[in-house]
């Protein structure tokens, strides 16, 4: 669930990137979101299909907690009995703590549940049915380790009971689901996480946040050694940092940032020249874009663009 609901306007820690700040050589600072709930778009492969069927909001975390939580998100859906709605997402490099309830099991887990979602390296697919609701905390890079002591990489491509990592998570589940307003649910999550904040911040968490923000925003970064040099790290130290605190390699982050931009650019202009798009986003040529895009999205960029054009045509 987290992977498609996390697709809010900012991708991972790349809020700046989604606001047109994909500028070479600029390492944006990771900042806490603010303001009311906002609609989602970035990362959902076919927002025109899912937008009408669920409500999605995004909310800021409390001061202090915001150092570890990029934002809270909430989603609800209520479909007629006979209707189902598939949704596909190209996930962002983030872990999530969620409290979920639904008419049917989600992620192979009986509902209700409190869960931790690791970073998904593949396309996320889910089919909505019946009714359900989720409130989640999108954790900043390094936050899971800071809050629980656990490394991020064993959770990659996994969903586990939150109780495995957060004592008291079942009580949190019951408390959150008893509340009616998103803001109150977020406040309960704030209190739960505030009680687990480390006494001394780990400087590696700030380093991981800076690396992820930079890589997801700067398309001039095409090699791991470039990222390491930009942050004053050895390649080995960088690889250890991203694996332990984010859950994936620096190379994966570079590729995922480019793929996120390719999806966003094709959604904005399904008729874009794919060769020019490939070179602009850092691929050697269109063939390399097609290989990476197909592996991640499940269809070639040309086929994906055709599906977007077809969806944009008015029905007759």
UniProtKB/TrEMBL annotation:
<dbReference type="InterPro" id="IPR046532">
    <property type="entry name" value="DUF6597"/>
</dbReference>
<dbReference type="InterPro" id="IPR050204">
    <property type="entry name" value="AraC_XylS_family_regulators"/>
</dbReference>
<keyword id="KW-0804">Transcription</keyword>
<protein>
    <submittedName>
        <fullName>AraC-like DNA-binding protein</fullName>
    </submittedName>
</protein>
<feature type="compositionally biased region" description="Low complexity">
    <location>
        <begin position="1"/>
        <end position="21"/>
    </location>
</feature>
<feature type="region of interest" description="Disordered">
    <location>
        <begin position="1"/>
        <end position="38"/>
    </location>
</feature>
<keyword id="KW-0805">Transcription regulation</keyword>
<dbReference type="InterPro" id="IPR018060">
    <property type="entry name" value="HTH_AraC"/>
</dbReference>
<dbReference type="Pfam" id="PF20240">
    <property type="entry name" value="DUF6597"/>
</dbReference>
<keyword id="KW-0238">DNA-binding</keyword>
<dbReference type="Pfam" id="PF12833">
    <property type="entry name" value="HTH_18"/>
</dbReference>
<feature type="domain" description="HTH araC/xylS-type">
    <location>
        <begin position="206"/>
        <end position="307"/>
    </location>
</feature>
<dbReference type="GO" id="GO:0003700">
    <property type="term" value="F:DNA-binding transcription factor activity"/>
</dbReference>
<dbReference type="GO" id="GO:0043565">
    <property type="term" value="F:sequence-specific DNA binding"/>
</dbReference>
């Amino acid at each position: 669930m987290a992977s498609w609901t996390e697709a809010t306007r900012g991708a991972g820690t790349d809020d700046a990137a989604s606001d047109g700040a994909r500028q070479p050589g600029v390492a944006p600072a990771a900042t806490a979101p603010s303001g009311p709930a906002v609609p989602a778009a970035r990362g959902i492969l076919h927002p025109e299909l899912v937008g009408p069927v669920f409500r999605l909001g995004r909310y800021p975390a409390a001061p202090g907690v915001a150092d570890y939580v990029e934002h809270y998100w909430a989603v609800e859906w209520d479909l007629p009995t006979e209707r189902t709605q598939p949704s596909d997402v190209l996930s962002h490099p983030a872990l999530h703590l969620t409290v979920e309830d639904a008419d049917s099991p989600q992620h192979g887990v009986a509902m209700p549940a409190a869960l931790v979602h690791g970073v998904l390296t593949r396309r996320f697919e889910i089919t909505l049915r019946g009714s359900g609701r989720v409130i989640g905390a999108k954790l900043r890079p390094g936050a899971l380790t800071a809050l629980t002591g656990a490394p991020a990489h064993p959770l990659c491509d996994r969903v586990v009971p939150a109780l495995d990592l957060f004592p008291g998570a079942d009580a949190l589940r019951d408390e959150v689901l008893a509340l009616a307003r998103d803001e109150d649910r977020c406040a309960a999550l704030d209190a739960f996480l505030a009680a687990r904040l480390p006494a001394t911040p780990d400087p590696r968490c700030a380093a991981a946040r800076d690396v992820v923000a930079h890589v997801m925003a700067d398309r001039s970064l095409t090699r791991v050694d470039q990222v390491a040099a930009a942050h004053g790290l050895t390649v080995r130290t960088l690889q250890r940092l991203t694996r332990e605190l984010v859950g994936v390699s620096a190379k994966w982050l570079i590729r995922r940032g480019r793929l996120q931009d390719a999806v966003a650019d094709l959604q904005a202009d399904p008729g874009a020249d794919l060769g020019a798009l490939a070179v602009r986003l850092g691929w050697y040529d269109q063939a390399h874009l097609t290989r990476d895009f197909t592996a991640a999205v499940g269809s070639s960029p040309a086929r994906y663009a055709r599906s977007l054009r077809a969806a944009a045509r008015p029905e007759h």
